[in-house]
Amino acid sequence: MDYKEIYRQKLTTADEAVKVIKSGDWVDYGFCAIHPRVLDEALARRAPELEDVKVRGGISLWKPAIFDIEDPVHHIIFNSHHMSAVERHHIASGAGFHEPMRYSELPRYYTDHITPPDVAMFQVTPMDKHGYFNFGLSASHLRAVIEKSKVVIVEVNKNMPRCLGGFDNCIHVSEVDMIVEGRNDPMGIQPSNPATEVDKAVAKLIVEQIPNGACLQLGIGGMPNTVGAMLCESDLKDLGVHTEMYVDAYVDLALAGKVTGMCKNLDRGRQVYAFAAGTQKLYDYLDDNPACMAAPISYTNDVRTVAALDNFISINNAVDVDLYGQVNGETAGIKQISGAGGQQDFVLGAYLSKGGKSFICLSSTHKNKDGSLGSRIRPTLQTGSVVTDTRVNTMYVVTEYGCVCLKGLSVWERAEKLISIAHPDFREELIREAEKQKIWYPHNRR
């Protein structure tokens, strides 16, 4: 079969490709770094002649062109699986919505539950000699998207890293309806903020509990990445990687010789991930690297997969935690900040892992709009805030003031431990609130 000839037959322009999209259609952009570029711009140009087009995507690393169209509510709205700052502002304007999910289940949402995409369009690597386009930086749930989409359009980008894997990380030219050659834009950058003193204090408490041979999952944010930086300077060895999001910290760990994956029960020697975002250093490292394995989210985040990996260490951020141990990792009241992602998957899986631990980390305080400080350890979660991790699933909670394990504790013990790692300025107030809620034992330490 002449794959190059099939390629030529399906090659078209972005403006011609998006003519297939009709009013009322569902359009899928893939996820994160593989969102389309020139196809997105072509769809934005078509916006005035379309109504009620619904786009799905998530963790945009740049501002999609469809965000800048006139009157987006009537023409094209965006539905985010997991919000970046770019999407947060767009959705706050009323021109989009969040789609709550447990990330490991996302492929099944497409196959069993949600309206199938009429059109899927996303960036891929150039076609190889066997006729395959690689999904690049986001295997995630793409195979499920393709299987349910009526039309599949790929946008070829020569700068997309070819991310090797085991399964469900490619699409064959025979499965593609249209091919568009893009501008070869550089990949979107997701830089890490410099570590604060609070980040370092929290990271130090976590690193102390990580053994040799541990398998790591680092969530999005400064604190998890600071743990990675601190591990580079530690004496630990033979660490493994199994995560949903691959970030720069893993590259640093691998280049420092800390990651071998030789102690992993599954995928020995491979760094497993579902999608990646970071700096060019990360993209260069992942490109054609057999030490790394791109896999679908239904595998990377499956609780059964995580539980099968001994000494699994899960490290994720939170917005706030209440005195019962309920964790909010995604909202400020009713305002959506990010998404649940795979946090619950890894919290559950890590506890089931032999020797595994899950850590929820957060600074003890946040700054209010008026410049005053507020406590992230709260009597109860703010009205409207969601529970990302239920109190029975929370294991370790860490602030700069300490690390406590909540497993098996009564409500008064939980309150006591959480207040002990709150900022000192708020402890007495939290005790008074705990007393009102009848979760403070009279003999508790003050």
UniProtKB/TrEMBL annotation:
InterPro entries hit by this protein: AcetylCoA_hyd_C, AcetylCoA_hyd_C_sf, ActCoA_hydro, ActCoA_hydro_N, Butryl-CoA_acetate_CoA_Tfrase, NagB/RpiA_transferase-like
GO biological process: acetate metabolic process; acetyl-CoA metabolic process; butyrate biosynthetic process
Keyword Hydrolase assigned: no
Catalysed transformations (reactions): butanoate + acetyl-CoA = butanoyl-CoA + acetate
Active-site residues per Swiss-Prot or TrEMBL entry: 244
Superkingdom, natural source: Bacteria
Pfam families attached to this UniProt entry: AcetylCoA_hyd_C, AcetylCoA_hydro
Catalytic class of the enzyme: transferase
Residues that hold CoA according to the record: 219-223, 319, 342
UniProt-recorded Gene Ontology molecular function terms: acetate CoA-transferase activity
Domain Acetyl-CoA hydrolase/transferase C-terminal residues, every copy: 278-434
Record-listed E.C. numbers: 2.8.3.-
Keywords for the protein's UniProt record, in alphabetical order: Fatty acid metabolism, Lipid metabolism, Transferase
Pathway: Lipid metabolism; butanoate metabolism
Domain Acetyl-CoA hydrolase/transferase N-terminal: 3-187
Gene3D superfamilies linked: 4-hydroxybutyrate coenzyme like domains, Acetyl-CoA hydrolase/transferase C-terminal domain, Glutaconate Coenzyme A-transferase
Family statement drawn from the similarity comment of this UniProt entry: Belongs to the acetyl-CoA hydrolase/transferase family. Butyryl-CoA CoA-transferase subfamily.
PANTHER family named in the record: ACETYL-COA HYDROLASE (PTHR21432:SF20), ACETYL-COA HYDROLASE-RELATED (PTHR21432)
Task performed by this protein: Coenzyme A-transferase that converts butyryl-CoA to butyrate.
Name of protein: Butyryl-CoA:acetate CoA-transferase
Source organism (scientific name): Vescimonas fastidiosa
